[in-house]
Specification:
The chain is built from five helices and two strands, in the order αββαααα. The protein is mainly alpha-helical. Strand 1 and strand 2 form a beta hairpin.
């Protein structure tokens, strides 16, 4: 099940501050403990949040893939070295490397 935080982020169409919303888990699942009156939308119902399940799952899965891709792309120094060698030698090592990282870590 996706995190409530992600569903709220989608519902608001933005990240939120801890001062705006407080989530709590008393052992029976996470729920909204506080919802600020200053927010542009009223506190969502369980039905509204449940309707965002699929979109939230995709968002969370893609965030995991992005994190994995970041480590596989290598350091910026190594990337610049590949780009330099490609320009010097007329090769496509950098592009091929990026294509492999993306194909090995497909997003939804």
């Amino acid at each position: 099940m996706t995190q409530l935080h992600t569903k709220i982020k989608i519902y608001l169409n933005r990240d939120y501050k801890d001062s705006e919303i407080e989530l709590q888990n008393d052992g029976e699942g996470t729920y909204i403990k506080f919802w600020s009156d200053s927010l542009e939308k009223s506190k969502p119902t369980d039905e509204q949040l449940n309707a965002l399940e699929s979109e939230a799952t995709t968002l969370e899965n893609n965030a995991k893939i992005d994190a994995k891709r970041q480590t596989e792309y290598l350091s910026w120094q190594q990337q610049f070295e590949m780009i330099y060698k490609d320009q010097k030698n007329g090769t496509t090592i950098y592009k091929d490397h990026c294509d492999k990282v993306r194909s090995d870590n497909l997003k939804e």
